[in-house]
Structures are given as C-alpha cells and as structure tokens.
Amino acid sequence: MKFNSALLITLSFIGLYLAQAQENNLNTHKDSLNYVLNQYYELNLKVFQQNSTLKDIGKIFELFTDDFTYVHPNYGGVYTREDLYNGYKRNQKNGGYDGSVVDIRIENIIYGLNAITVSKRFITKEDGRVVEGDEQMALFEFKNGKIFMIKEYW
C-alpha cells in the first residue's frame, strides 16, 4: 500500500513537472518570437525617419536569415534578401523615408510554431495631424531565431 501511494505521488509530481516545463517552453518560444518581431518594427520605424542611415537599415537585416524572402503580391511578388536591401537603400537615397511614419501599431498577434501573424497599422503625420492607416496583415516565419520569411497580405 505504501509503495502504491509513493508511486502515485511520484507520478503526480512528474506529470506536474512535465506540464510546467511544456508551458515554460511555449512562453519562452513565444517571447523570443515576439522580441524579434518588436525589434523588426522598432528598427523599421527608425529607418522611416528622415535622418536614418545605412547602418540603421543594416540592423534590420541582422534579424533575417541568409535565405530570407519577402513576399508581397500587391507590390511585385517575391523579393530576395538582396532585392529588399537594395529597395531600402533606394528609398532612403530618394527621400522616401521622410519621417511621415510616426508609429507602427500592432493591433493583434496570433502565435504559431515558428510563425506569427500580425495585424498592424501605420500611424502617419499628414498636414500636421496624426492619421491611422488601414489595418494590414503580415505573416512572419522564423528559423533559428531569425526571420526567414515575411509575407504581406495587403
């Protein structure tokens, strides 16, 4: 009888430990994805300012895997990491980053295994007033703690 009680208590503790470990693992995974996502948007907001530099652009690209892909069907389809980097540089050189974007507000996030779907909106300054843009959806996929693919659905 003592053996059965001890076994039951031991199995209960093991079950509790495994459940806690699984919950901590999910929180850690979710937190790490969220950290990279927030870094991505913070760095983009910095690049969108008039005084941004090539170094600021480079910091965004440190978040990407070497085989990163950007997909935006509404703006031409699939872009390699190099294509996107050149686009950032071109926009910066041509004055496309003029400080009109004052914030990027995340409205909703759905977490998956190595993926996040985001609903966000750009907050811009137009004619001296702050304007909320339309909600936009994006899917982020991750590999080894870095962004592997971004697919925009707007």
UniProtKB/TrEMBL annotation:
Keyword set, alphabetical order: Signal
Residues of the DUF4440 domain: 53-133
Any matching Pfam family: DUF4440
Keyword field contains Lipid metabolism: no
Gene3D superfamilies: 3.10.450.50
First and last residue of the signal peptide: 1-21
Descriptive protein name: Nuclear transport factor 2 family protein
Organism for this UniProt entry: Maribacter flavus
